[in-house]
């Protein structure tokens, strides 16, 4: 454990807590709190890139008369062939960036980004959550953190736990990210989420 990862508790004014909570947003991620819809038509996924929260669903609607699939590059899911208005829906219960493609038409590609969530306050400390449930069936999680633009440091590796307390000793804005591992397959890293430590 590095000195930046040692737990501590600092008291802060309530106004600072409210201001800090406002900073807890994924960097560069669009709002997608109600899940996301992807249209599969004209030989493309539209939009090709979506962001959803932990536990939210992505629904693909296959409008072409030609059959397509939505198939994870890392083997996390496969819709099978669908066409003519059929749908496929999947809940994303863990953090990461999940690339996918159509197995019939290799030029059709997309991705689903799922940031981890942060709850808490400067007074009580912060909790990072990267999954809605504990990993099982060979599913584990990796989590990294960095202060400012510093080097990424491992916070969790190969864990089955879904969350962890995060309260570094050094003040600053920390970026955190996570990925999901199943067997030998790994998702990409999730969009980063900022945690302010005062």
Q: Which labels suit this protein?
A:
2 domains, disordered N terminus, mainly beta, 198 residues, Immunoglobulin-like, 5-stranded antiparallel sheet, 4-stranded mixed sheet
CATH topology of the largest domain: Immunoglobulin-like
| Count of the separate structural domains | 2
Helix-strand topology string:
HEEEEEEEEEEEEEEEE
Annotated CATH architecture of the largest domain: Sandwich
Distance between the termini: 20 Å
Compute the number of helices.
Answer: 1
Which value, in Å, is the CA radius of gyration?
A: 19 Å
The biggest beta sheet is recorded as: 5 strands, antiparallel
Structural write-up:
The chain is mostly beta strands and 198 residues long. It folds into two domains: 3-28 and 116-197, Sandwich (Immunoglobulin-like); 36-114, Immunoglobulin-like (Sandwich), CATH 2.60.40. It is built from one helix and 16 strands. Strands 11, 12, 14, 15 and 16 form a five-stranded antiparallel sheet that branches. It has a four-stranded mixed sheet with strand order 2-1-4-6, with no helix packed on it. Strand 7 (96-101) and strand 8 form a beta hairpin. The longest helix is centred in the first third of the chain and has 8 residues, at 14-21. It is elongated, with a radius of gyration of 19 Å.
């Amino acid at each position: 454990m590095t000195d930046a990862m040692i737990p501590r508790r600092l008291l802060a004014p309530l106004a600072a807590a409210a201001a800090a909570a406002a900073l807890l947003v994924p960097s560069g991620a669009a709002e997608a709190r109600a899940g996301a819809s992807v249209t599969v038509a004209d030989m493309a996924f539209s939009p090709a890139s979506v962001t959803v929260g932990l536990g939210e669903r992505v629904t693909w609607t296959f409008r072409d008369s030609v059959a397509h699939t939505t198939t994870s590059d890392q083997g996390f899911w496969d819709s099978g062939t669908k066409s003519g208005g059929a749908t496929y829906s999947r809940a994303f219960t863990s953090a990461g960036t999940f690339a996918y493609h159509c197995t019939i038409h290799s030029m059709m590609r997309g991705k689903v980004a799922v940031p981890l969530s942060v709850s808490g306050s400067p007074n009580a400390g912060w909790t990072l959550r990267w999954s809605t449930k504990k990993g099982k069936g060979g599913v584990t999680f990796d989590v990294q953190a960095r202060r400012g633009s510093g080097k990424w440091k491992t916070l969790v590796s190969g864990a089955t736990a879904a969350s962890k307390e995060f309260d570094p000793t050094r003040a600053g804005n920390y970026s955190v990210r996570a990925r999901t591992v199943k067997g030998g397959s790994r998702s990409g890293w999730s969009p980063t989420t900022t945690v302010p430590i005062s």
